[in-house]
Design goal:
single chain; 162 residues; alpha/beta; Double Stranded RNA Binding Domain; six-stranded mixed beta sheet; 2 helices; 6 strands; elongated
């Protein structure tokens, strides 16, 4: 009796590119990111500069675009439209056990070289914290976390290949 064995090997290769996946670098080379004005009713004085810096860093570090002051192939501008605090997770005694900090940013992304890639959208992210903590105790950390998430969302919606 002869028993045969067959071994079949297959190989798959995947390539992921996270370096500005939607951009055609043969025609798109420069970017201008305007300072975002804080138009929220409640204003955190550190939010706008923190957001501006994080957004610029992301686009300069993760694309091959050169930042310029004007006449860019791509512009990003907008405003901070919301900085809100509200109680959530109400307990049986009618007091909130959690508080939510929500930040909203309206972004206008214009690609002058590649039609159909513009974005005009509001992005919103939030973090919750125990109502037993004051906002001043957790605000800096929460703002950094929310800004990171917002920048990720904006980057993904504009130049990442998602």
């Amino acid at each position: 009796m002869v028993i045969g064995h067959c071994l079949l090997l297959t190989a798959c290769s995947f390539s992921y590119g996270f370096q500005g996946g939607k951009l055609n670098y043969d025609i798109v080379k420069t970017i201008t990111i305007q300072d975002f004005t804080n138009r929220a009713t409640l204003v955190n004085p550190n939010l706008a500069p923190t957001f501006d810096r994080a957004l610029r860093d992301r686009f300069v570090e993760q694309t091959r675009l050169t930042a310029v002051d004007n006449n860019a192939d791509i512009t990003i501008e907008g405003e901070i439209t919301g900085y809100d605090i509200m109680g959530t997770a109400v307990k049986e005694d009618a007091y909130a056990s959690q508080t939510r900090l929500t930040i909203s940013i309206h972004v206008i992304y214009t690609n002058f070289k590649e039609e159909g890639n513009d974005v005009d959208q509001t992005f919103t992210a939030f973090r919750e914290f125990p109502a037993s903590s004051s906002l001043s105790e957790v605000e800096d950390t929460l703002v950094r976390e929310i800004v990171t998430e917002l920048v990720d969302m904006i980057y993904n919606a504009t130049v990442a290949n998602w």
